[in-house]
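Quick log. Single chain, no ligands specified.
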Amino acid sequence: MRTIAAALLLVSALPACAQDVKGAILKHLRVSKEFTLKVAEVMPAESYDFKLTPPQMSFGGQITHLSQGLDFFVSPFSGEKPGDAKPASNSKADVIAFVKVSFDKAIARVDSIKPSQLTTAFKTEEGSQTGLDLLLGMLDHTTHHRASAEMYLRAKGITPPQYDF
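-> predicted structure:
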């Protein structure tokens, strides 16, 4: 009887736990947006096409790619295919505007996720992934490309902004 009671208690707590997870993801996504914008702002406009080496993406390309990735990771929740959105141009102003729109859309989509979707398996170009895997992958992908962009800043002699958690 104790086992059944414990199982029922655990099952009843799952929606609350899922809400806590979703809330944590939203918090980190909002912090990621603000930090990404800070990184994007400190690079001079004339250096948005700067590359550390010829085969790498440009600074603006890194920022654009991480913003495009948001849609890749959240589109499975609505059953959509990732879009092919991009900034109006590769200028600093257009890339920053694209970052804002991309993050705002991702935040709204994550906010609408149902708790059960965190454990649902979704088919993606990368195979089958749970909703939680997708959300963690989104944060990881964003961090990876933003960190690369920070190296571009350092190569230009610019100190990256301080990360505030």
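The two ends are 44 Å apart (CA to CA).
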